[in-house]
Design goal:
Largest sheet: 10 strands, mixed
Radius of gyration: 23 Å
Number of helices: 14
Oligomer: single chain
Strand order of the largest sheet: 7-6-5-4-8-1-9-10-2-11
Distance between the termini: 19 Å
């Protein structure tokens, strides 16, 4: 079909690209550029991987982590789309206007078209770019979708969540599974993949990623694969038998058992992906990165997804450590000499683009010019050589009076850090663990002793939640147990002064109100761009596998 013809090149075309590659290599002192395979798990909690002591089993992920370098102070944003915006632009999310809320299907938010993506820069470095999985950066117009943002190919879903078998958005309904690409003439093409209904989405995505990897031997360009899986975002769905196969004995609670099955699907994807890289020989020149996009959503929070961030505080959607500090590691031959090590320097998700492209530039002699100011830091010395972090501060939020900045070991929270607060045990279950501001007055202790501290069911809320200013020393208190703002007004003042300096970069939050014209019901039950669609020439009668 037309897509297969796109994948094939004529012998003359291959010879031309090979000759050009040779000329560029001779002129720039080029060596083979490494493939980049960047894997994002969805909502995977700090304590959902067994190398962090979890009660769940993740042997494949553990082995990959042990073979490389674990980043134990890896930070994201508290929600899916905010993290992806920062990752793709290497900029703080407050610059994009997406800091106020997660992008919703049918809403008006999107990564601004003025933002230059990591994929755009990778093309300048000579890469072929693939996005397999979740996009979640907007779809109001075609110009907001992956193939118009630097990716050569997209296979996945535009929205933030999806049914693992029926492939519709689990909150708003509407089909959201497609393939986008450009043909040999550069024309945009799309296939709506309804004939895949019933297929287990993580397997479909992994199989397509494997197909791309196997095709690499016929490519003259290195590969940048952005592999964004749905696991382990709710709903926790997996094929029949996965729970009994992957859930260890002793797991309590329906939600965590369901999570174990979903996590088994993630394990299989990681095994099959890395097996394909090794079988094709691509592993020998591949950098594999694995992260979670934010903290997990424990029982009692959000979607009751059974995740655990223990011993970190709270979880997804909050700016406490449980919401923004995530499992992360880098594996492959470029870190083989550091196998089994961990680094504890501060690393923000915006650092990945400058960190990885720094190595590519040194290896190939190629370069690019930044189009926008970035906030990401080149931490290649820490990641690839075990050095110290170059990051000294990290802005997590400035929005509606809520401000969060980490400076060295101190983290300042002004205002509200998230709707849900508190502590949960290693299985993500409610745990009564009340701590106080220092000092805590006598009346406050009495109120807590009679149950007036506040709570969400049996989920205990820290009585310091009402504090307008909280300061934590993460070096000695990574669980954010004690508010030391009262003891260190000088540190509070210094960090607040820095926040004031950073206000100049903040973009007005985008409006995320629902737009009737954007709803899937206006386009035959399929989520697709609704604005300026006439500017894109697409013959759906030929290119879709089912009628729209």
């Amino acid at each position: 079909n037309e897509y297969k013809s796109y994948l094939r090149m004529t012998q003359g075309t291959r010879w031309m690209f090979a000759t050009l590659s040779l000329i560029v290599g001779l002129c720039a002192g080029d060596k083979a550029a490494p493939n980049i395979v960047f894997v994002i798990a969805d909502d995977l909690g700090w304590n959902d991987v067994s190398y962090h002591g979890s009660d769940l089993n993740t042997p494949v992920i553990d082995e990959l982590a042990r073979s490389g370098v674990r980043l134990e102070q890896h930070y994201t944003q508290p929600e899916c789309s905010t993290t992806r915006a920062s990752l793709l632009t290497s900029r703080y999310v407050v610059r994009t206007g997406l800091q106020n809320d997660v992008i919703l299907n049918g809403g008006g938010q999107a990564l601004p078209e003025t933002e230059v993506t990591w994929a755009n820069y990778m093309k300048e470095l000579g890469y072929e770019n693939y996005l397999v999985g979740k996009w979640h950066q907007g779809m109001n117009s075609w110009e907001e979708t992956p193939v118009f943002r630097g990716f050569d190919y997209f296979y996945g879903y535009y929205g933030g969540q999806i049914h693992y078998f029926a492939h519709y958005h689990t909150k708003f309904g509407g089909h959201d599974f497609r393939r986008d690409y450009r043909d040999e003439q550069g024309n945009f093409k799309q296939e709506i993949l309804k004939n895949e209904l019933g297929g287990y989405l993580p397997k479909l995505l992994t199989d397509d990623a494997i197909r791309i990897i196997k095709d690499q031997k016929n490519k003259d360009k290195p590969m940048f694969m952005y592999f964004s899986l749905p696991n382990v975002h709710s709903p926790n769905q997996s094929p029949k038998g996965y729970i009994s196969k992957y859930c260890p004995d002793g797991i309590e609670g329906y939600d965590r058992k369901q999570l174990a099955g979903n996590l088994g699907g993630l394990e299989e994807s990681m095994k099959n992906l890395t097996d394909a890289l090794k079988e094709t020989g691509e592993w020998d020149n591949t950098i594999l990165v694995f992260i979670s996009d934010n903290g997990g959503a424990p029982v009692g929070l959000m979607s009751y997804a059974g995740h655990s961030n223990y011993p970190l505080r709270a979880g997804k959607t909050t700016l406490f450590e449980g919401g923004v500090r995530t499992p992360a590691f880098i594996a492959g031959p470029y870190v083989r000499h550091l196998a089994g090590s961990e680094v504890n320097g501060m690393f923000h998700v915006s650092d990945w683009m400058p960190t990885l492209t720094s190595l590519i530039k040194k290896k190939t002699g190629r370069t690019f010019r930044l189009k926008n100011e970035i906030d990401g830091v080149d931490n290649s010395e820490m990641v690839f050589n075990g050095g110290t972090t170059k990051r000294k501060e990290m802005l997590l939020q400035i929005n509606k009076g809520n401000e969060v900045l980490r400076m060295d070991k101190y983290k300042l929270i002004v205002g509200n850090a998230g709707e849900y607060d508190g502590y949960l045990n290693h299985q993500g279950r409610p745990e009564i663990k009340i701590q106080y501001d220092e000092p805590m007055d006598f009346l406050g202790k009495v109120k807590c002793s009679i149950g007036l501290c506040g709570g969400f069911g049996d989920y205990i809320i820290d009585p310091t939640d009402g504090a307008k200013v909280r300061l934590f020393d993460l070096e000695v208190d990574p669980s954010e147990t004690y508010n030391i703002a009262g003891k260190h007004p000088d540190i509070v003042a210094r960090i607040r002064a820095r926040i004031d300096e950073l206000r100049v970069i903040v973009r007005k939050p985008q409006d995320n109100s629902q737009i009737p014209e954007a709803h899937h019901k206006k386009s035959g039950g399929i989520w697709k761009p609704w604005r300026n669609t006439q500017s894109i020439n697409i013959d759906y009668n030929i290119l879709t596998k089912t009628e729209l």
